[in-house]
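Predict structure. Chain length: 263.
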Amino acid sequence: MAQRYVRVQAKDGQVYYGLLQVDRQVTILDAPPWLKGQATEAELAPGDYQLLSPCAPSKIVAVGKNYANHAAEMGTPVPSEPVLFLKPSTTVIPADAMIQYPPQSQRVDYEGELALVIGDRCVDCTPEQAQTKIWGYTIANDVTARDLQKRDGQWTRAKGFDTFCPLGPWIVRELSPGAQIQTFLNDAPEPVQSASISDMVFTPEVLVAYISQVMTLLPGDVVLTGTPEGVGPLKLGDRVRVAIEGIGHLDNTVVTRNNQEKA
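Prediction complete.
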């Protein structure tokens, strides 16, 4: 099993980066792992910590329509270059936290995605250089208020509500280029989204290089790589699971906005 890098909060409120062991013990690191954090002798038992999002990005740079079949289902052509947008850092929630359904929207969709975690400052990189800046991989759900996206004509509000970026549960360093990404709703055995990450129009290193020509990516920043076809609406009470082969799965439940406790 690949090493799983986590970010946790201990009972005393302290936040640590760590390595998740098979028995769910966490070996604490002395710094974020992409900043050369090393394992210490300190450990946290399974009941002594809360799992947080695996990083705390300064920004989340997301890519639209990066799977041809999703572009088709949205009624748009495949873009000739990456389509970028930003999600605020305040959208991030960890695995098992609640997605808040905002009262301003009547249609909130799931979008399962592979997320890249940047490990080193990246500016004006080539794709070859960008590959070395990708420290690891995790899972994201680019939750979207679809009706507001269509109404506004740009995506900031639709993509930017608190809790609209579930992220986690941990980071792995390596991923098969043909790994499967799937999204499931509730107890349905069949996925509502299913694709190979190799189906991306623009590969991860091309995306990171392209973004770095626009803005500096910092250690711990996150790049969302786009969603495959099959996006659809979420209802109150729905449980959505995004699974990526070689990483694991990210589960979150949808609640009304005033039911959410900050995580």
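Summary: The mean pLDDT is 95.
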